């Protein structure tokens, strides 16, 4: 646990630096644009579906307003669900810059040994992680609905599932750049992956903090990897 806290504190301290701040600005802008486009598409799509389902303007007085309100509310729920997937997919394409910024400042020897992933590899890793997240959250959704009566149950379920997913994503993001043999195990333990993923998953649910979470997570994962390797070597 102490190494997780230290890694997060170091990452948070570096967020105020110009390198990570520029990456943060680019990633947040791109994420917001993609989510806005998707959210608008969902809004119009839901409005069309509800109209075809019978909630048309001629059904009763005010039906059009009710349909538009329902579509808007559901689209905001959809945006809340897809923000994490889009944000982490976007950060995959800035991961190399984040990791390089952290390693250049704190772990210069490791920075010289890191390998750059090709664009094909970046796309492959990013799409695989996004697909895994989307499919898993869809599978979990019915169980979350069953837990609605508990009020907090759905939030805990989504948090736990995404903690597992994010822990793996963040680990792979860094480890793939330092793993020189395909079967070499990453130095993260399961509990460390879960804790790191859980913290980032929780931050992704908090307004404003959700903008910082992907960059903070990638930077913290970089610190965690190298601090674990250094401790192991010692």
Report on the structure:
- By secondary structure, this protein is mainly alpha-helical.
- It has one domain (2-31, 82-233).
- The chain has nine helices and no strands.
- The chain has helices at 2-14, 18-52, 63-92, 95-106, 108-113, 119-146, 153-175, 190-203, 209-233.
- α3 (63-92) packs across α6 (119-146), α4 packs across α9 (209-233) and α7 packs across α8.
- The radius of gyration is 20 Å and the shape is elongated.
- It starts with a helix and ends with a helix.
Strand portion, in percent? under 5%
- Gyration radius (Cα, Å) is 20 Å
Tell me the major beta sheet.
none
In angstroms, what separates the terminal alpha carbons? 19 Å
What is the N-to-C order of secondary-structure elements (H for helix, E for strand)? HHHHHHHHH
In total, the number of domains comes to 1
Structural class: mainly alpha
Main location: membrane
Transmembrane segments: 28-50, 70-95, 138-161, 194-219
Subcellular location: Membrane
Membrane topology: Multi-pass membrane protein
Keywords:
mainly alpha, EI24 domain-containing protein, CysZ/EI24, transmembrane, 9 helices, about 230 residues, about 80% helix, about 0% strand, transmembrane helix
């Amino acid at each position: 646990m102490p190494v997780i806290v230290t890694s997060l504190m170091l990452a948070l301290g570096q967020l105020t630096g110009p390198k990570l701040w520029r990456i943060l600005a680019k990633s947040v802008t791109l994420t917001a644009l993609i989510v806005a486009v998707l959210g608008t598409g969902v809004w119009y799509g839901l409005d069309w579906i509800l109209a075809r389902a019978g909630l048309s303007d001629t059904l009763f007085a005010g039906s059009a307003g009710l349909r538009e309100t329902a579509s808007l509310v559901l689209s905001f729920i959809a945006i809340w669900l897809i923000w994490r997937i889009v944000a982490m997919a976007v950060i995959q394409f800035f991961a190399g810059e984040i990791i390089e910024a952290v390693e250049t400042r704190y772990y210069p020897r490791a920075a010289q040994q890191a390998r750059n992933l090709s664009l094909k590899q970046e796309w492959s890793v990013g799409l695989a992680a996004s697909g895994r997240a989307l499919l898993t959250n869809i599978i979990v959704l019915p169980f979350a609905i069953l837990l609605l009566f508990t009020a907090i149950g759905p939030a805990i379920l989504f948090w736990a599932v995404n903690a597992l997913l994010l822990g793996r994503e963040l680990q792979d993001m860094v480890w793939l750049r330092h793993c020189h043999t395909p079967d070499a195990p990453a130095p993260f333990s399961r509990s460390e992956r879960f804790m790191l993923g859980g913290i980032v998953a929780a931050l992704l649910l908090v307004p404003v903090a959700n903008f910082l979470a992907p960059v903070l997570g990638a930077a913290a994962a970089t610190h965690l990897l190298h601090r674990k390797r250094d401790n192991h070597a010692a």
